[in-house]
Amino acid sequence: MQMLFKNLNLLWNKFKKSNSQFWEELEEQLISSDVSVDTADMIISNIREYAYSNNINDTGIIRDLLKKEIIKILNCGINEKLKFSGNPPSVYLIVGVNGVGKTSAIAKLAAMLKKQGKNVVMAAADTYRSAATEQLQHYGERLGIEVVHHQKLSDPGAVVYDSLDKALARRSDVLIIDTAGRMQTSFNLMEELKKIKRVVFKKLDRDPDEILIVIDSTTGQNARHQAEVFHRAIGLTGVILTKTDGTSKGGIVLTIKNELQIPVKLVTNGEKIENIDLFDPEKYTGAIFT
Ligand SMILES: Nc1nc2c(ncn2[C@@H]2O[C@H](COP(=O)(O)OP(=O)(O)O)[C@@H](O)[C@H]2O)c(=O)[nH]1
Ligand SMILES: [Mg+2]
């Protein structure tokens, strides 16, 4: 996330004392880094009120207030760690629109978990495009990880059912489910995802341990809308933020956490299989202020 709030430093150099111009430019900076208008407004008014009532106009101190405000947003509520069930397999349902990096993020996550000694199974429940299944199978062969798949256009619920059987039989630690990104309508897609959830519930007597939406960090402000639509339909537990090696800006992390209370849990930063990391709020905040 090299581009993250990249002009903030210029702002601190330009203004040693705050004035209305400073606040305006700070807000513009946040918005142009993909923080939503609402979240940027909230951040600025919180800091501005605090600064005003404490007679603070030194922008160096305001910078620390901004940092605290960002940390407050990232730390409140749900924790960022991936959830593992005490009753394996842990089931991770991966959702998101086409092209955001779902299938490759699944392979990266599976490789990361395998490296930690976990037994992983992947389910090719994006049966809408045959290339999607093939892509996951390729990864599976390369990584030595089993992929459960059916034919093109077969019922994704049935793929998930079989993959749960397989994961239970093999006493796998984690089952990761790939899903379709586009259907004739968003309604159909959401119904399909709800059905997958029901299949998991019937089999394990609980919801998937994680329902992660994959967000392309170069998408811009529309990413919030994507998260909201999926969240309303199926309830998300976290975000996988992809393509942060590109021209991403990173502000979307704050927007989604602040407005939907959904934490970013994983970040991918390249096309290699090892280009995945757990989201680190400290590192993120640090990157903003370097
Ligand atoms: N540079 C870069 N490219 C990525 C990253 N993640 C995914 N991609 C690329 O994005 C494209 C779409 O990825 P794919 O996993 O097929 O997306 P899906 O349609 O959501 O399953 C592929 O060309 C990937 O190589 C990333 O972190 N960095
Ligand atoms: Mg895919």
Describe the structure.
By secondary structure, the protein is of the alpha/beta class. The protein folds into two domains: 8-75, Up-down Bundle (Four Helix Bundle (Hemerythrin (Met), subunit A)); 90-288, Rossmann fold, CATH 3.40.50. The protein is built from eleven helices and eight strands. It has helices spanning 8-14, 20-32, 37-53, 59-75, 102-115, 130-143, 156-169, 186-204, 222-234, 252-260, 281-288, and strands at 90-95, 120-125, 146-148, 174-179, 210-216, 238-242, 264-268, 276-278. An eight-stranded mixed beta sheet has the order 3-2-4-1-5-6-7-8, sandwiched between helices. The protein is elongated. The termini are close together. Guanosine-5'-diphosphate (GDP) binds at residues 96, 98-104, 181, 214, 242-243, 245-246, 268-271, 275. Magnesium ion is lined by residues 102-103, 126, 132.
Pattern of helices and strands: HHHHEHEHEHEHEHEHEEH
CATH superfamily of the largest domain: P-loop containing nucleotide triphosphate hydrolases
**Biggest β-sheet: strands ordered side by side in the sheet:** 3-2-4-1-5-6-7-8
Gross geometry: elongated
**Helix/strand structural class:** alpha/beta
Secondary structure tally, helices:
11
- Catalogue the unreliable spans: none
Specify the helix fraction band: 40-55%
Q: How many angstroms does the end-to-end distance come to?
A: 12 Å
**What is the β-strand count?**
8
For the biggest sheet, the summary is: 8 strands, mixed
CATH C-level label of the largest domain:
Alpha Beta
Tell me the number of structural domains. Answer: 2
Determine Rg (CA atoms, Å).
Answer: 21 Å
Bound molecules: guanosine-5'-diphosphate, magnesium ion
Average predicted local confidence, pLDDT: 92
Strand content: 5-15%
The CATH topology annotation of the largest domain reads as: Rossmann fold
Named CATH architecture of the largest domain? 3-Layer(aba) Sandwich
